[in-house]
Structures are given as C-alpha cells and as structure tokens.
Design goal:
20% of the residues lie in helices and 39% in strands. It is of the alpha+beta class. It has four domains: 109 residues; 110 residues; 52 residues, SH3 type barrels (Roll), CATH 2.30.30; 59 residues, Beta Barrel (OB fold (Dihydrolipoamide Acetyltransferase, E2P)), CATH 2.40.50. Strand 7 and strand 8 form a beta hairpin. Helix 2 packs across helix 3 and helix 5 crosses helix 6. The longest helix has 18 residues.
Length: 365
Amino acid sequence: MPRRFCALCGRVTNDLYRGLCAECYLSQHPLAVVAREPSLTLCRSCLAYLRRGRWHYPRAGRELEGVLEGALNALRDALRPSSEAVLVSVEPAASLSTASQLVSRGRAEVPVVVRGRISPSSSVVHEQVLHLRVEVKWALCPACRRVRGRVERAILQVRVYGRLMSEGEKKRVMEVIAKEAERLYDRDREAVILESDLSEGVDVYLSSKRVARALAAAVQRRFGGRVLETQKVVGVDGSGRVSTKSTVRVLLPPFRTGDVIVREGRAMVVREVRGNRYRALPLDSCSVETLPLSEAFSGRVRVVSPSEVERASVLSVSRGYVQLMSMRNYRVYEVRAEVVPSWVRVGGEVGVLRLGEKVYFVPLN
C-alpha cells in the first residue's frame, strides 16, 4: 500500500482531504462558518424574543428559559455549513446562567459544539468547538407596546338583563375577570386590564380583542348569560388598514342563585346558574329541573320581588293546613297547602307567596 502524508504537517495517513489530514483540513476549512453575527432581540418588558419576524412569549415565571431558547436559536441560525461539509448537529453549550448573563450584561460568550462530515462522500463524523458571542438588542414587543401606550382596542361590558347590577355582583364578576386575566397572562402578554369602571355595571378596558373575548367567555361560564360583540371604526393605521374597537358585552340573567322566580305560573327557587342553563327547584315539588337560560331573556321567567313575599310565623301544622301569623299586621290566618315542606315547622318563620289561589312557602335567608 502506498504511503501518503499530509502536505501541511507531514503526518502519514491514507485519509487525506485535498492533500491534507483531517485536523489540518478542518483548521483551514471549519465544518461551519458564521453567516452573520448572532444577536438576540428581547422585549425589555416581558423578555419575549424575536425570531424570523415573530415574537415568542415565555410562560410566566419561566422567562429565563425563554431567553435561553432564543439564544440557542440565534446561535444555530448564525451558522451554516462551510464548503462541502455536511452538518450532523449544532449544540450550543448554553445554560440558564448564560441566559441570566444575557439579561444582565447584554452579551455572553458561548461555546458551540459542531459535528459533521467534511464532505458528502465521507462517512467519518468530526467534531469542532466554535466560540461565539451573542449580543442582545433590546426592544418592545407589540403587546407590551400597546399595554404601555394604553392603546385601547376592546371594552368588556357586563350588565344584568332588566335591572342594575348589585355591588356584590360587580365584585364577584371582577374577581372572575381578574383571575382569568392572570391565567391568560401566562401565554398572552396583552391580558392586562388597562382600566375598569364599575359605575353602571362592569366595564373593563383592554388592548386586545382576543383577551376581551376570552374574559367574556369566562364570565359566561361562571354566571351564564349571552355574549354579543360589536365593532366601531376608529381610524386608519399607518399601513392603510382600518382600525376598529370592539365592545364585547355579557348580558347576565335577571335572577341569581337563591332568587324566587315564576315560570309558567309555578314558583321556583334558583339553585344554580352556569353556562347556558340554570337549575331550579319548584316550591311545590322535590325534584330539581334543568332549564335553558334563554328563557330568562324571552319573558317566560319573572323574578319575584321581596315585597311579594309575606313574612309569617308558623303557629301550627296539620295535614294539608298551616296556621300562620302575619308579621306585617299580626293577623292570624290558615292556608291550605298541597305540599308542606319539611322545613316549615311550628315556631319558625317562613315566606308566603300567593299566586292567584295557590300559596307557596318560601325559605327565608
């Protein structure tokens, strides 16, 4: 077998590449070259990173992991195969400490392990270590820019059908909205409440229509109701596109859990309102019924006002008859009832609701 040697170092070997051994060839022709200096664009507010024209948002509490992911992508994007080389893998030796250094100092040195073949015809995989510097470019992502600039693009309105919202209802609705916004912020940096107004109902101002719809859906799931969205043209942006502002309205049913309602001539107590249905217990029955919430907006259901319920003391209970004393005028009277609930007891107080000739006993809160 003929003896061959490297033209540069004189090493005797049969594996030559253009007259050079692998080590000498790779010293002059690395497996990978830097096509562009690696840089990482980060949002100075939320630490999202920009890659190929798209912002990538980290999960809340895992911002450094997102920065690390962006740095790894920036390093891989900066390298390309040199000459005839075929790359097998590019592995930057970066860690969370590297990400921390990028955030605090704006730059970091990172060794990158490159594995590949010198040419397509070669079966031998070689390894090289390149040392690259990643530079950080600071910017504001579109979401944070709108939030910081308080750019209002949507209003979430919550109202009650046929009446004003109570202060307790406003508080409970705002609790649901705040909790859902906190959950959404984990993946959507525009899930920030710019402002709220509780004078007439619940009005929440947002920079994102998408977030407004998600918050409306959360309110509807919890309290039931209808969702309606309208849009208003507010101008034209820099690219010539029409800019709109959305109003997403959630219309809650007029009754709440515990309210007494009249449906098709029967008195019922509302047990639960959720989604597009509600559950109610007829006061002349022991079986809870599940009903469509659309009835609340069609006039088929009437909410009984407190003035319609007379407070009375129970004097005696016999089969089919209950003797009562009105707490309004202390008049003693007897009513005939087809159903006497077990909670109607002598010495206790009950509410009495009269619908025509029928009498219902209403539990007092």
